[in-house]
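Case study B.
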Amino acid sequence: MNPQNIVLGVIGADCHSVGNKILDAYFSEAGFHVTNLGVMVSQEEFIDAAVETDAAAILVSSLYGHGEIDCEGLRAKCIERGLDRILLYVGGNLVVGKTPYEEVEKKFLDMGFNRVFRPQVDLAEVVKMLKADIAAASRP
Amino acid sequence: MRYEPMAWKDFLTQRKSVLATWPTGKDVDLEGGLRYQRDIPEAKNFARAMSGAKAKGRTLIQPRAGVALIDDHIRLLRFLETEGTADLLPTTIDAYTRQNRYEEAAVGIEKSTAAGHSLLNGFPAVNHGLGGCRRVTEAVTKPIQVRHGTPDARLLAEISLAGGFTSFEGGGISYNIPYAKKVELGDSLRAWRYIDRLVGWYEENGVSINREPFGPLTGTLLPPFIGHTVAILEGLLALEQGAKSITLGYGQGGNVLQDLAALSSLRELAGEYFEKAGFTDFDLTIVFHQWMGGFPEDEAKAFAVISLGSFVAAAAGVEKIIVKSPHEAAGIPTKEANAAGLKTTRQILSMLTDQIICGDNDIIRREKNLIREEVACLMNAVENASGGDPIQGIVRAFAGGLLDVPFAPSIFNRGRVLPARDNEGFIRLFAKGNLPLSDEIMAFHKERLAERAKAEGRAVTFQMVTDDIYAISKSKLIGRPK
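Model:
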């Protein structure tokens, strides 16, 4: 696992492209090697990119409400492909309708994500957490 | 450029394969759709409502809304017309249908039925088919439109128009470049040629269907001239195929004078370009979209953003405004939040309806002249690239970066244009990419941005653009450093 390498993309049939470009710029600036798959990325494409780049984390965005359907099963597929230590982060407007964050967070933690973020999250915080999580995951 | 309607026999040949792309296609027949449309009362025809608004100087209000299941969708629309007092209704289509992924839409319908609430972000009209669409359009009293983001919406158009919808949003550029990643621009333009031909056929047979190219595009710091050029081109392509009721759109930029100048110039320029191309029999109206970028999470602040947009619509005298809700920062609103946005908008419009607000002023004149010159630069470039064929002109212009939409996801968009706000909040360009703007125009943009950079003691960089993108959600217009 290369601790600098992360995979970024917007999952499913979601074409929200603005935040994706900003995340790419931000994480690159923070020292990561970002493989940005852009919008409308399938689970398989995320995993292929993570395998190819030996990535430490997959960062999934979803802004259009279908996150619940699109993200189901991602963790299991990662394990199938031998990515048993990869970090999975997800953020955005993940479900249809205004829902308390705690409910959304629980739903996605149960799905196997390591961290779940609101769209308003401070990116500096995310970078800190990601570096710490990767360091923890890299320990033998 | 030469404008020629698609040959009818080519349309019919293509139609067979379009209807075969999903089982519900087999229920649609042209004559049956026409008979059904002829029986729809005048008061429910979208094109008539738009021309009526123009004649009476009224601004009509319309929400966005769509859920997975038919009965829930009907309940939602009825609530928006009664409690929300919407003048015009939408049916927003879900994101799977927009990508022609009907199998996934079917899964979404199943999971929504099981969950007891919608897991889809819109109404999967193709899956519900002709019968489902007719149940929806018959259940409401107001004109109703299909709103989506579909690069190839041929089947959706066939089903929904035969199903009683009287307006269809989108276009070959505006529903590809901001809404798709890998769809060839020529393919979406040809798909929309088919849709416009279908609308033209209804018109020839006495049924008016309103067509609305999607003006805001990526909805993110879009300089008016880029959206206007796309809107005018899509208007021309719709007229070419026989559409007559055309509504062109523009999304709120945030600087009030720039927005007023943009709305006034969109109407003027579109009329001029349409006539110059030889079209005379058209009914042009204008729609304004409340802020399409990120919203404040705080609902009181969100109402303020909605109110400012409503003010601009009233001041500009547009025929229609598309309304946001206080839940915008969290995604898709409840029906109550959606109605609250409508009521806020209605209150502002009613208070301003008899007032003359801004009139004319020097700054609006300056901005209108600028937009006129910028649009001319881009339209000339498309004309020169076209070899007489508008579709070729558009495809080549995008390939060469002569047309370029900031922040768009499509790989067929160069994406080299970067906008930022100047020191007064006007949206300017700091990187023009390959847009064919004159040196004089670019000097003006650069000078205005240099003024802001100086005031903030920092250079114009991508960080400034990012700050501007998030500014309104953080309660400011301009993303100043802390």
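DSSP finds 17 helices and ten strands in chain B. The remaining cases will be described in the next quarterly update.
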